[in-house]
């Protein structure tokens, strides 16, 4: 730890605190995620090891895919891992993204009364879509997509982060059984099962999730980017009870997007928020939409 100069805190998640650090020898700006690492808590330790392994696995697989096509890599690069046993903390060191995250970008737009342009939205859509397409083609589900996990570098290029809940699909299977993801970004098929589980009060069942769950979360993020609110509640009712939220997501259509945005853009986001996962648009199909495909670098 003495090799690093600690700077400002960048964010806080369920499993740790992310901080901007500078490596003293090289003066390289990095970020680290500080997590609990108690010796006698095997489950916590395993979660930390899983996060490190999943981050490395996702980066390695996507780096191979991208190198073959000479594309920009839209995933945060893991740079190292160490444990400080004196204070029972583990540190996952990653590349630093100086542009903050998509949540900060949305909040800044709201505060300043600005809106994103359709072109900029399509650019972000292409970047997230291409990284999701690479992940899904490589049989990896992110499983915790949200604006806080979409980072931006100094050139406003997207980098996906936080692969702690990601899962590798087994060969021949199109789903995983796992509890994962942030509640407000979970797909209706996941929330429906959660609601059923609560009512039946039996043993906790594993919940089936497919790559379509990532697309739903992607759609919620894109809705927020345009409307600066969640598709199923606004600032007036953001404290709605969990059961009411589930009922809205499962049974009601999302709110309408601002009508000054192009109809094709609004309809594309609606296709991401399709209730039926088998009918929901895929990452590959999103990239084939002409307005999204036009954002491919070099076009």
Describe the protein's architecture and organization.
Helix content is 39%, strand content 18%. It has nine helices and eleven strands. The chain has helices at residues 42-69, 102-112, 118-137, 188-200, 211-227, 242-251, 263-272, 283-287, 290-293; strands at 4-13, 16-23, 28-36, 78-84, 89-95, 140-141, 150-152, 158-160, 167-168, 176-177, 208-209. The termini are far apart. The relative contact order is 0.11.
Short account of what is shown:
The chain has helices at residues 42-69, 102-112, 118-137, 188-200, 211-227, 242-251, 263-272, 283-287, 290-293, and strands at residues 4-13, 16-23, 28-36, 78-84, 89-95, 140-141, 150-152, 158-160, 167-168, 176-177, 208-209.
Write out key terms for the chains shown.
299 residues; 2 domains; nucleotide-binding; 11 strands; Transferase(Phosphotransferase), domain 1; single chain; alpha+beta; 5-stranded antiparallel sheet; NEK_Ser/Thr_kinase; kinase; Phosphorylase Kinase, domain 1; ATP binding; two-stranded antiparallel sheet
Strand arrangement in the largest pleated sheet:
1-2-3-5-4
**CATH first level of the largest domain:** Mainly Alpha
CA gyration radius, whole angstroms: 19 Å
Largest beta sheet, briefly?
5 strands, antiparallel
Q: How confident is the prediction overall: mean pLDDT?
A: 87
Q: How many distinct helices? A: 9
Low-confidence stretches: none
The geometry reads as globular
How large a portion of the residues is in β-strands, by DSSP E? 15-25%
Work out the number of β strands: 11
